[in-house]
Amino acid sequence: MKKKKLYIILCLILTVTLSGCIEEYQADIPANDSELLVVEGTICSSELNTFILSRTQGIYSDKELGLVDGAKVSVHGSDGSVYIAEGYNGIYLCQVGVLDPDEEYYLHIEYDGEVYESEPQKPLRTEKIADVCGVQNTPDSNIDILVTPDAPFDPNKANYYSWTCDETWEVHSDYTTTVYYDLFLGKGVFNDKQFPSRGWKDAIQTTVMVGSSTNYEGQHIQKLKIYDIDNSDERVFYRYSGLVHQRAISKAEYEYVLAQQQASSEMGGLFTPQPSAPLTNIRCLTSSKHVIGFVGCSLNTNVYRFFLDADDFSIYYPRQEDTRLWVEDPNEMYCRRLVEEEGMFLCVWQDERLSGGKLKTAWAHEEQLDVRYKGAYIEEPYFWSSTEDDINQ
Question: I want to staple 189 with a disulfide (CB 3.0 to 4.6 A). Which of 9, 79, 125, 182 is the partner?
Answer without folding.
Answer: 182
